[in-house]
């Protein structure tokens, strides 16, 4: 194997990007570790309490914004992205506008992306090892305190939009991010520049007005936070605006003009399972816990837990058009063992009683 002084790092960087594409990633870039500006932004966001109950965001301290504190010796970060909406997925707006259906964020319809991408990143590291010998690295996919969006921007993969999601000029924003922290002194790429201009469609369309200002998201109002991260009761004032969104929310991406360039996923594992791209609320609400666990095995939906799943569906049913089927489904769980579920079912039944 070549000595460190004999390695052509520019050539290696080109190979890494080529290998990433061969492994199924849509793009790859290389960033340095200076995230000082983003660290200041993160600290203000935490100070404002916009992280809600995600206490781990504060507990991690500066490890999130200083890669070498998370993984000692880190000099560069290889950032990758992977498109996630496969062909044939039901039209998102059609589902959102059908009150009897349940809307699940499009990233969560297939296999858990963490496993898919982490395996690919491990293969990428093995390819690098095969070329230069052993080196220090660590693969991350939304699994540790990593400022993945800032790193992706610095690696040239896209800019952070006003909705705080990374946007790529050629591919929109429907993609996952992953990172390979490394001690290799690779040449870095040019950061992406912002191209949102005066557009504010994402801000205006947010059902709960969670984007409180351009580039500022209050997670406490965000439907993705409410349906996944929040444990316990969803604030009553935010339940009606949730509509039928029972796991995550895509509105700010769906309205983004840049997503006319979105690319379809090539990864078969991201294909919708159990027709979850267009399910009926009452059918999902009838799942037992055993059915929930069996049908969401290996999927990101598991994160909400069965109680959270029923809570979210109760809100969706409360917002659904009044029908005997909907009311009967809610009444069937009026005495659920979970107090949280009972509370949201009671709220939903009151909505239909008023109708």
Helix fraction bin: 25-40%
Q: How would you describe the shape?
A: elongated
Low-confidence stretches: none
The proportion of strand residues reads 5-15%
Structural class given helices, strands, pairing?
alpha+beta
**Total separate domains:** 2
| Amino- and carboxy-terminal Cα gap | 74 Å
**What's the CATH architecture name of the largest domain?**
3-Layer(aba) Sandwich
Instruction: Count the beta strands.
Output: 10
CATH fold label of the largest domain = NADH Oxidase
Order of helices and strands: HEHHHEHEHEHEEEHEEHHEHHHHHH
CATH level 1 class label of the largest domain = Alpha Beta
Strand order, main sheet: write it out.
Answer: 1-2-7-4
Summarize the main sheet: 4 strands, antiparallel
* SS element count, helices: 16
Spatial extent as radius of gyration: 22 Å
Q: On the 0-100 scale, what is the average pLDDT?
A: 96
General description of the model:
The protein is of the alpha+beta class. It has two domains: 4-88 and 111-182, NADH Oxidase (3-Layer(aba) Sandwich); 201-260 and 272-354, no CATH class. The chain has 16 helices and ten strands. The strands form four sheets. The protein has a four-stranded antiparallel sheet, sandwiched between helices. The chain has a two-stranded parallel sheet with strand order 3-10. Strand 8 and strand 9 (216-217) form a beta hairpin. Helix 1 (9-22) packs antiparallel against helix 6 (113-132) and helix 14 (305-318) runs parallel beside helix 16 (339-354). The radius of gyration is 22 Å and the shape is elongated.
């Amino acid at each position: 194997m070549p000595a460190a002084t004999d390695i052509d790092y520019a050539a290696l960087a080109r190979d890494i990007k080529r290998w990433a594409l061969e492994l199924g990633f849509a793009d790859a870039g290389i960033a340095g570790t200076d995230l000082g500006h983003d660290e200041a932004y993160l600290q203000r966001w935490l100070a404002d309490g916009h992280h809600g109950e995600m206490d781990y965001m504060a507990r991690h301290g500066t490890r999130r914004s200083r890669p070498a504190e998370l993984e000692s010796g880190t000099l560069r970060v290889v950032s990758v992205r992977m498109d996630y909406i496969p062909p044939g997925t039901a039209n998102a707006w059609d589902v959102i506008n059908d009150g009897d259906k349940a809307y699940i964020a499009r990233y969560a319809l297939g296999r858990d992306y963490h496993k898919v991408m982490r395996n690919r990143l491990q293969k990428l590291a093995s390819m690098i090892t095969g070329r230069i010998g052993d080196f220090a690295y660590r693969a991350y996919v939304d699994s540790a305190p990593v400022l993945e969006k800032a790193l992706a921007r610095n690696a040239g993969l896209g800019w952070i939009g006003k909705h705080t999601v990374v946007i790529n000029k050629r591919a929109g924003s429907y993609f996952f991010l992953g990172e390979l922290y490394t001690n290799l002194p690779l040449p870095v790429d040019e950061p992406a520049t912002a191209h949102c201009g005066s557009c504010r469609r994402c801000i205006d369309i947010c059902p709960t007005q969670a984007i409180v200002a351009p580039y500022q998201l209050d997670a406490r109002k965000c439907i993705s936070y409410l349906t996944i991260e929040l444990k316990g009761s969803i604030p009553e004032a935010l339940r009606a605006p949730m509509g039928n969104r029972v796991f995550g929310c895509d509105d700010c991406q769906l309205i983004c003009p840049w997503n006319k360039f979105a690319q379809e996923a090539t990864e078969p594992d991201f294909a919708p399972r159990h027709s979850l791209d267009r399910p009926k609320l009452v059918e999902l609400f009838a799942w037992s816990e055993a059915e929930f666990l069996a049908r969401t095995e290996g999927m990101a939906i598991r994160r909400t837990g069965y109680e959270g799943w029923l809570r979210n569906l109760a809100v969706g049913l409360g917002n659904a058009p009044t029908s005997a089927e909907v009311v009967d489904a809610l009444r069937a769980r009026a005495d659920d063992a979970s107090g949280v579920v009972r509370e949201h079912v009671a709220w939903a039944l009151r909505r239909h009683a008023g109708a």
